[in-house]
Design a protein that fits this description.
46% of the residues lie in helices and 10% in strands. With 145 residues, it is mainly alpha-helical. The protein has a single domain, classed as Zincin-like (2-Layer Sandwich). Helix 1 crosses helix 4.
Length: 145
Amino acid sequence: MTTTEILFELMRAATSLTGYEYPYSIPEIDYVPYETMRDIMILSKICSSTDKRYECNVKAVYLNLNGVVYLDEHSDIKNSPLDRSFVVHEFVHYLQAKYNSYEIETYTCSVRAGREDEAFKAQNEYLVEEGIDKVYVPVYPCQKK
């Protein structure tokens, strides 16, 4: 399979795991260094540059502002089910943005946590389908105790 075919298959997985309508398109994919993703996450306030409990340890990020999925430049979606699961997760965010419009003023911590829960659930189900028991549990910096 080509990378493009794999990406369309991953979008099919994201839609089947969440119930969203298949969009017949995928967002732009950009392979970037980890440092670039970390900077995007910090600038977007997705994670903190100062709170070490919530370091930006990410392999992929979807940026709704420009509709791009950024993947770690070392990702190997052809051979790594784990790396493919990160794409499924970010595709869920793409689908959320496409089908669930929201006003930035109402994008609260609980809304964000709900969106992450849905993306992690799909990612974890995808991993199980791939025979991998690694399960990701979301942590939300906005819900510090």
